[in-house]
UniProtKB/TrEMBL annotation:
Keywords: Hydrolase, Signal. This is alpha-L-rhamnosidase. Transmembrane segments: none annotated. Residues 1-18 form the signal peptide. GO terms for biological process: carbohydrate metabolic process. It comes from Paraflavitalea soli.
Length: 911
């Protein structure tokens, strides 16, 4: 036994020593793990360092790349040893890449303490079709006349191979949405493909490794299409066919055999077409599946398709095709019914307990022709009945007609619903919980951020923020997932973008969407209200169109990726120039604007309680903000002359603001919370006037009974401004307010997502105006950004974006005794958590390797300890001094545990 213990101890020592030495892990290419189908000719590599030691920095790296798993041979490219601490987004600079080829890479690093890591395990990526000429397939469309319901067409093709397959890759896209099968098995696990872009300018295709789906001998490919965003109903006034009336398929299958020969299967007129069980499918209205029409075995070899018609070649281009490297929509969480009950109206309703986006999978056994109808709703009305008035024209209804052949399972294909409740009609027999499963669908971004606190309602708010993101990030950032809208509203997206970047890895998601912002930007430079643009020439609203500058800058800060600024700079500049063209004497006071959308408003406002902020005041603030962000981008990109030009413009914009929208004694002409929040956030006031303006903001909040009165544009900045100017106590008061209007009011009313309106459900359980009352609308979830970056204190410095240089500055609240957050940066895990108990403050911090942190300990005096020892006893960090009510520590990577005396009175300001 003793020998075993000694052996175990020796092994543990070896493992500990190995970990204490620097290791390399979590290799990504373009922020993806082993991605397939990149059309980027210089993909960028990232990795993370792993070590148990403190203050570990990378001092050098070496990367090598080859088209074989051993990563050796004459085609190998290597950087050699590069003296650099850069471990994120390093571009490939080897020989030109080939289409449809898998490349392998690995990296080793040197640290700042003389250690060299072992070579990492190999990672890989596979290129897509890098040139339009690589496409040999033809667009095809059904060879039959469609019916009025636009039943989903089926396409099939059989082929034979007699050799052993080494690899097989399928490239697929559609006008509409598609689902593909090979030999009856689904291709990939992505849904709603090819996703939504500005189709006439940018159409994504997906790349799949289908090697395991093929068999030696006879094979069959089957593809089902749906109308989707391409030609389905979008927006209002029965709008459809926004990109075309056709529905079409493009598919290319490349097979390489072990003997080196190849075979290509292309979509062309030899394919057959027909219809099947999906008789109707629309995003807003739902799907009808008639199992009696199912063509069993149609996607397998040997199926008799003599009655099918030959496909027709479609007149469509491949010049707009782009590969997909943002994360596709996939299935995620599943929910079983919490209860099945009858409403006062006698309707059978299922409660899944969570407002989610996706669909319901249902099992049933009945007679041929039995019809089951599933209707979807977010809430029940005051009387306990099923409520769908807020869906407007969207039917959000799926219909299933049984074949009568045993137990049948149904789920949609080309639609989705936003719902918590399900009304079931026509179900044969007893409806049991085991026969129903709700499935959540959203873009497959990696979760990156967590937040917890000692306040249960605040934890539920965090849950609601997370599910607001999940429900609305379906390839584009939609504004609501349930009604006849579901559009990429720009104002909502910019307001929430920084919060989104904390919760999930949103870099690729927004990179793709911002390219569509640039693609759909109007010739004048104006930005449409929604992207992709299906509303025509409507655009140019302040705070909405500023998405063109705000999101690129937010993504740069969150991920340290300068490329998005370079990519979007022309669009940013065009937008600022548009505002300039609409201004007179540097004052932008014309045009249509949404203003501070859904601000606190009172009907019959006889005493002026409605918080109306001048829309042109708002416009001037965002004009300045976008100009400032353009200056920052120009400076980073080396466009110094342009930076100087726009700096001169910015000064004039602010001067015009002061002349037009401020009073002689330092107030704003609107005198609203939003007017002060924007003026302070965007530095519109001279420095000497800012504190008094912040004090006016606090006075205004108190006049509303310690409630906020802001809408979509003021809310994201409100608590940030309060904390910046010494009023963290008021920020906490607003955050923890439980009565309307507040963030916790919907939580108290049972919300599981963020509402569109502060009072979507009123205190008497009646509803706001149903024409605009979504219960899953993420914009007000932007408070999450304050919770993570200010309350807990996890932030990045502008001169070390992407959390290369970290600021950890918690702000303590009197009613909160504990708060913690973790964030998976591109360097590794960053974490902080504070706790007050027994007159002690505990602050725990984890800093990832290859980064540095400035830690602000909310304490004064010298009786602070780290891991039980006085600060002065440690050589692992530097005490940099004191700042207001903080002791400042400079530290490198590692885990730290600080303790200090604490008095509740210290939480009043949190400065």
């Amino acid at each position: 036994m003793k020998r075993l213990l000694l052996l175990f101890a020796a092994m543990l020592t070896i493992v500990t020593m190995a970990i204490s030495q620097v290791q390399v892990h979590n290799l990504t290419t373009e922020n993806l793990t082993n991605p397939i189908g990149l059309d980027i000719t210089q993909p960028r590599f990232s990795w993370q360092l792993l070590s148990t030691r403190r203050n570990v920095m990378q001092s050098a790296y070496e990367i090598k790349v080859a088209a074989n798993p051993a990563i050796k041979g004459k085609d190998t490219w290597t950087t050699g040893k590069v003296i650099s601490d850069q471990s994120v987004l390093i571009p490939y600079a080897g020989t030109p890449l080939k289409s449809g080829t898998r490349y392998y890479w690995q990296v080793r690093v040197w640290d700042n303490q003389g250690n060299t890591s072992a070579w990492s395990a190999p990672a890989w990526w596979q290129t897509a079709l890098l040139a339009p000429s690589d496409w040999k397939a033809s667009w095809i469309t059904p060879g039959f006349d469609e019916d009025a319901q636009r039943a989903s067409p089926l396409f099939r093709k059989e082929f034979t191979n007699q050799k052993k397959i080494r690899t097989a890759t399928a490239y697929i896209t559609a006008h509409g949405m598609y689902e593909a099968q090979i030999n009856g098995k689904r291709v990939g696990d992505a849904y709603l493909t090819p996703g939504w872009t500005s189709y006439n300018k940018r159409l994504q295709y997906q790349t799949y490794d289908v090697t395991s789906l093929l068999q030696q001998g006879n094979n069959a490919i089957g593809v089902t299409l749906g109308s989707g965003w391409y030609r389905g109903y979008l927006a209002w006034s029965d709008g459809k066919n926004h990109y075309g009336k056709d529905i079409a398929l493009l598919l290319q299958l490349e097979i390489t055999y072990t003997d080196g020969t190849t075979q290509t299967i292309l979509s062309d007129e030899s394919w057959k077409s027909s219809t099947g069980a999906i008789r109707y499918s629309e995003i807003y209205h739902g799907e009808t599946i008639d199992a009696r029409e199912e063509k069993k075995g149609w996607a397998t070899a040997g199926y008799d398709d003599r009655s099918w018609t030959h496909a027709l070649k479609a007149n469509a281009s491949t010049s707009v095709l782009i590969a997909t490297y943002n994360e596709p929509v996939k299935k995620h969480e599943t929910f079983k019914p919490l209860r099945i009950f009858k409403t006062p109206k006698g309707e059978q309703v299922v409660d899944f307990g969570q407002n989610l986006v996706g669909w319901v999978v249902i099992k049933a056994q009945g007679k041929s022709g039995d019809k089951i109808t599933l209707s979807h709703a977010e809430v029940m009305d005051k009387s306990g009945n099923f409520y769908i008035d807020n869906l407007r024209a969207a039917k959000a209804q799926n219909n299933y007609i049984l074949s009568g052949e045993g137990t049948e399972t149904f789920e949609p294909h080309f639609t989705w619903q936003g719902f918590r409740y399900l009304k079931v009609e026509g179900y044969p027999g007893e409806l049991k919980p085991e026969n129903l499963t709700a499935v959540a669908l959203y873009s497959d971004m990696k979760p990156t951020g967590t937040f917890t606190s000692s306040h249960p309602l605040l934890n539920q708010l965090q849950h609601n923020i997370e599910w607001g993101l999940k429900g609305n990030f379906l390839d584009v950032p939609t504004d609501c997932p349930q009604r006849d809208e579901r559009l990429g509203w720009t104002g909502d997206a910019q307001a929430f973008s920084r919060t989104a970047s904390f919760l999930q890895g949103a870099g690729n998601f927004f990179d793709k969407w911002m390219k569509d912002v640039a693609a759909d930007q109007l010739p004048t430079g104006s930005i449409p209200h929604v992207i992709p643009n299906v509303l025509g020439n409507q655009g140019g609203s302040a705070g909405w169109a500023d998405v063109s500058t705000i999101i690129p800058w937010n993504m740069y800060l969150a991920y340290g990726d300068k490329q998005i600024l370079d990519q979007q700079y022309p669009s940013m500049k065009k937008w600022v120039d548009y505002m300039t063209s609409q201004s007179t004497n540097n004052l932008w006071n014309k045009g249509g604007h949404f203003g501070d959308w859904l601000f606190y408003s009172i009907n019959n406002d006889l005493d002026g309680r409605s918080a109306v902020t001048d829309k042109y005041l708002i416009a001037q603030c965002f004009y300045a903000h976008s100009t400032q962000l353009l200056i920052k981008a120009a400076t980073l990109l080396g466009k110094n002359e342009e930076a100087a030009t726009y700096t001169t413009l910015l000064n004039k914009i602010k001067e015009a603001f002061l002349n037009e929208y401020t009073t002689a004694n330092g107030g704003t002409t609107s005198n609203t919370q939003t007017s002060y929040a924007l003026a302070l956030q965007f530095d519109m006031l001279p420095e000497a006037q800012r504190q008094q303006a912040a004090d006016r903001l606090v006075k205004n909040i108190k006049q509303y009974g310690n409630h906020l009165s802001t809408g979509f544009l003021g809310t994201p900045y409100l608590c940030h401004v309060l904390s910046r100017f010494g009023h963290t106590d008021m920020a906490y008061t607003l955050l923890l307010q439980e009565t309307y209007p507040s963030w916790l009011y919907p939580v108290k009313m049972g919300a599981t997502t963020i509402w569109e309106r502060w009072n979507g459900i009123k205190p008497d359980s009646t509803f706001e105006t149903p024409t605009m009352n979504s219960f899953n609308h993420y914009a007000y979830g932007a408070i999450g950004d304050w919770m993570y970056r200010v309350m807990v204190g996890l932030d990045t410095e502008e001169d070390g974006p992407g959390y290369k240089k970290i600021t950890l500055r918690p702000h303590i609240g009197q009613k909160i005794t504990q708060a913690a957050a973790t964030y998976q940066t591109r360097y590794g895990k960053l974490a902080a958590g504070w706790k007050t108990e027994n007159d002690k403050l505990l602050l725990e911090v984890e800093v990832p390797a290859n980064t540095t942190a400035t830690i602000y300990i909310p304490a004064t005096g010298t009786d602070i300890t780290e891991n039980g020892s006085p600060l002065s006893a440690s050589k692992d960090f530097q005490v940099a001094g004191a700042e207001k009510e903080y002791v400042v520590v400079k530290a490198g990577s590692g885990t730290y545990r600080f303790s200090a005396p604490w008095k509740p009175a210290q939480a009043k300001t949190g400065n």
